[in-house]
Design brief:
The protein has helices at residues 44-49, 77-90, 103-114, 135-140, 147-159, 172-182, 188-196, 199-203, 208-218, 245-251, 269-272, 274-290; strands at 4-9, 15-21, 29-33, 57-62, 96-101, 119-125, 232-237, 258-263. The chain is of the alpha/beta class and 291 residues long.
Length: 291
């Protein structure tokens, strides 16, 4: 099966880029959502190597403002959710299992509330709950009230033509390979956080307004987890780079139908533990088909 790149232009002018692998006959679909300052190449390795290709269709998406879905207009959890729902609709799917990492996991939770009928299950990899923020996120949390005026100012500058015309492309599959080599050195902890937790590095690859709007949305309160009745697979790291895993796990006890897995990593499970993550997701999806 060949993966095909497609695009969808929304009513507000945003063009959403996504890639799809599908079988000849209708199958259930899994849609992969990347995290903060990321793009659909976050899932390139997974799609290439996963056995899910033989049993399910797979979509991976550049969220508006990220990757090739360059956009400098309004970005919210609601617009992201509606973009995903529109992609599913135009491809003919009534629902999907959503897989999200970091910000993408938070988005999946919002999607499960906003588009409950289209949600068949959730796989949440390192969701970031504001109450469990740690590290740099906890330090900036008291200052998130500054984000709206910052976003408004940048938006005004964009409207008068002040923005970067060209943004370099970030290939996370290649970056992951580089980081895995560095992770074999004594400085592995410093190496991975320096690259993956660097604001300056992130800002090279996406519009500034998209970055700050993403940060604002990441800081929003999550919907009531009590209201999510779909099956959920949760993956947490042992590290505390962005989130306190103990607090996050306690909050997730509100999820009614949830399986939790803990992996020894800093925060970037797809980079640090790709084989284990892939196996866990594949087995959970198999069990989901049986229920």
């Amino acid at each position: 099966m060949i993966e095909i790149s497609r695009s969808l232009t929304r009513g507000d002018g945003a063009t959403i880029i996504y890639r799809i692998v599908r079988g000849l006959a209708p199958r259930q679909v899994v849609i992969f959502v990347h995290g903060m300052a990321s793009n659909l190449t976050r899932w390139s390795e997974f799609v290439e190597e996963s056995s899910l290709r033989s049993s399910r269709d797979i979509i991976r998406i550049d969220l508006r403002g990220n990757g090739q879905s360059t956009f400098r207009g309004t970005i919210t959890m609601e617009t992201w959710c509606d973009d995903i729902a529109a992609v599913l609709a135009i491809e003919g799917y009534s629902g999907a299992v959503l897989v999200g990492h970091c910000l993408g996991a938070n988005l999946a939770l919002h999607f499960a509330i906003r588009h409950s009928a289209r949600t068949e299950g959730l796989i949440l990899i390192e969701p970031l709950f504001p109450r469990s923020f740690a590290g740099v996120l906890k330090k900036i949390q008291p200052f998130t009230f500054l984000l709206p005026p910052i976003i408004t100012t940048i938006g005004l500058l964009n409207r008068v033509g002040l923005y970067r015309r060209r943004l370099p492309h970030l290939d996370l599959r290649e970056l992951d390979r580089e980081m895995r080599a560095l992770m074999k050195t004594p400085e592995k902890s410093e190496a991975i956080t320096k690259r993956y937790a660097s604001v300056c590095y992130d800002l090279k690859f996406l519009p500034i307004t998209a970055y700050f709007q993403s940060l604002r949305e990441l800081s929003r309160p999550l919907p009531s987890l009590y209201d999510i009745k779909k099956p959920v697979l949760l993956m947490f790291s042992t590290g505390k780079v962005f989130s306190d895993p103990t607090i996050a796990r306690e909050l997730c006890e509100m999820l009614e139908n949830c399986t939790t897995v803990i992996l020894d990593s800093h925060h970037w499970i797809p980079t640090e533990r790709p084989a284990e993550m892939r196996s866990i997701i594949e087995e959970w999806c198999k069990s989901l088909r049986k229920t």
